[in-house]
Queue: 3 jobs
Job 1
Amino acid sequence: MKMIPLLLMALSLAFPLSAQNRTYSTFWHQRVSLFEKLAVTNEDILFVGNSITNGGEWAELFHNLKVKNRGISGDICMGVYDRLPSMLSGKPAKIFLMIGINDLGRGASPDSIICQTYRIIGKIQEESPKTAIYLQSILPVNESFGMFEGHTRKREIIAPLNHRLERLAKEKKITYIDLYSHFIIPCTNKLDSAYSNDGLHLMGAGYIKWAELVKPYINE
């Protein structure tokens, strides 16, 4: 697709790549400072994302100490991009990426999310070409809980955005994992309340479902 590089060029002018030009939370800096101290090896499998990833006990879910959590609550696409060096220095075997819902919650456009995800994938492929990348769909949301209005009011945008992420994965020759369709209430685009108690984050059953869906890719 020629459209993505053109959008990437335009957004590069609007969003400088230096982390010094962006402000992240104290929690983001706390987590990054820890990740910079923790070694990554070429046998490791990293789950990268925001609070939804942050909440998973991945090593226990997969009974595998090589599966490591690199989620940060509140993170956005460029937050992931800015902290890639600590993850890529050890050339991990696999990266499972889910990012974008907080960007939507902050008012970012789908075009911006696609282009920034493109940057993330490109950086991984450039710095650690042997790392297998798994791009996971953004999960659905549900406004009926009356929480996280900035996120849940974007519910209708998520499915079309996921279709674009799937096309991006195909263009970049990486694996796309559709989680979205497994977490919605049938015949709707709402997050099933069996998996969440706030319309955005997951309960235990949600993490069990997630682990079941990605386990084949962990083991391949």
Job 2
Amino acid sequence: MAKRNKIADALQVLGELGMPRAQQNDRSALCLLALLDLTQGESWAAAKNPLVGITPMMQFARDRYGKHYAPNTRETFRRQTMHQLVAAGIALYNPDKPTRPVNSPKAVYQIEPDALKLLSTFGTAAWDKNLVAYLKNRKTLAARYAQAREMQKLPVRLATGETMHLSPGDHSELIKAIIEEFAPRFVPGGVLIYAGDTGEKWGYFDKELLAKLGVEVDGHGKMPDVVLYCQERGWLLLVESVTSHGPVDGKRHDELARLFARSEAGLVFVTAFPSRAVMTRYLGEIAWETEVWIADAPSHLIHFNGARFLGPYV
């Protein structure tokens, strides 16, 4: 009964905090309890504020409450519970290092201080009064943390003079270099059609222009990290940014060729690396008839075979 009661308490808390019904479930209740390091035999007054990642939350649910979740449900925990708790201002994301990349395995969460103060009074006579006071400021609180997160994003200058923002991290740093350093040198006058973001798949996407070139993609198509259009030469450059995942190898080349098969512009396949040291780890995988660009030597290209130094292969 103690296990069920504590989870039931957490469910009540989530409901009274105004969380959507999709987050009022055992998984979300256990995440909240893990954020508070609150076991079944403790009172809410014993709530704490550890830094905790997704995998430790799942271990907490198993070890303290006997709830077993498969390893492949980590993304469900992150996307369907923790994302919403952070958005509501109840939890903080990477408070120890706000610039940590979105997809970092070291990502951690922590209960927000005002939420901790409130939740430690659950079950007492002060709860109702404290809850009213907390909810009065909740939207302001969530907006404040959202603004702080936005300020940590990486600004990227576009050729149009506009500025887009990417989630912080090495991957985004390389995408920024592709747009600001590679494009002006090798695609002068080129137009940015797409730039991915680790925090939001469609970071920047001129879907209308891509459709005019004969290509329409849905949410299932795995886009390259950057797509640039060179109208003068009739080229569409498909650029992969490699910091932790692989280059344009044979398999990826075929995937992109199929995805952009209807393109009226010729396809140019490019792999971008932050440094030669990173490139050497992937030399054996890079596909022929592709280009390689290295951010720390921005004025040079490495051409993998073929008659031209840069151009589509028909």
Job 3
Amino acid sequence: MPAGSPRRLRDCTGMILCGGLGTRLRSRVPDRPKALAEIGGRPFLARLLDRLVAAAVPRVVLCTGWRGEQIEQAFGERYRGLDLHYARERAPLGTAGALRAALPFVSTEHALVLNGDSEVDVALDDAFGPGPWPDASLLAVRVADGSRFGQLRVGADNRIEGFDEKGSTDGPCWINAGVYLFARDRLAELPEGVPFSLEHDVLPGWIARGLHARCVTAAFHDIGTPEAYATARAETPEQVGLLILDRDGTLIAERADLGRPESVKLLPGAAAAIRAFRARGYRIAVLTNQAGVGRGHYGEDDVAAVNQRMLELLAAEGAEVDGVWHCPHRPEDHCACRKPLPGMVEALRGEFGPLGPDLLVVGDNVCDIELGQRIGARTALVRTGHGSTAERSGSCRPDRVIDGLQELAPRSLFPVEDPA
């Protein structure tokens, strides 16, 4: 970075503490790490990653532990443009021990650390502001009832003066929101391979060296106890997701005569995937480039007939989509609707309203993956159609590569299900 240029969180490495046994929450979420507990129909961890995406943090280290393989299976190596890395503890190390063990993944001067079981509703880049930053700071949020939390004593210059134990007050107070900005050198001082707690063993000792609070007024949620988890779920409406599918080579077989409805053949798993997403409340849209219209190979009526035949075949298997949108232009027409440009997505917004954060784009072409990345969606490349060629070329970086829609389900990127 050039000398004197302002630092933003995009210059940091993100770290999320999502290890631990989650014993207090085990009665509600017995089969997975608590970071995968669902809030509003999505894993809690996805909400934290969304905040890092919004702050333009480029890479994140997930500090995992018990059943950490579920997190790796759920999120893989990429999420909405974030590069994800995993530091999995083989024995419990505590929050500070987990950070120290993950430090080899951090090459930046600062690390932005988030607890994996709490969230503060604030734009992180605004909360911390541009650098230079102190070596150690945390977000403090004011709550109406501090009885469940340890109280922060914050001085006039925003230096933390002390931590009071849980139950020290049952009125309004400042609490540690579980979001930290640490200099890498400060974390490097921690001993390796030793189980110890950031909150209890490290932060109090850093007060004398300078530990600063960034005080914000914002909603705070945590899911650390069954009661808190139930409250967070009750306060968060179920978010309706949107699945955007390509047509040729993804839903139906790629053929040279796709202007003829009698040639339409559903690909394996197409109807089952649509049924599964529909059952979870997703809206489903099909977006397809049809340059054959612009080139005169077939007409708009032919596109409509092929779409109708596809919809009939899906309906025969109990599957339904919300609509099919197509671009009739050639690449050389430089229109705004041909994928990867988002013109057809803008048409979706006109029909559906705001699309929400839970977006998934699936297709067999580079343009499908690039479209998804432009709109901040998760992406999956299918090896059907042109997908294998796109994969071999290395010309796109989807979040997932799958053999076909038979592998796609509402939690194929988040594969765990709610406990009974």
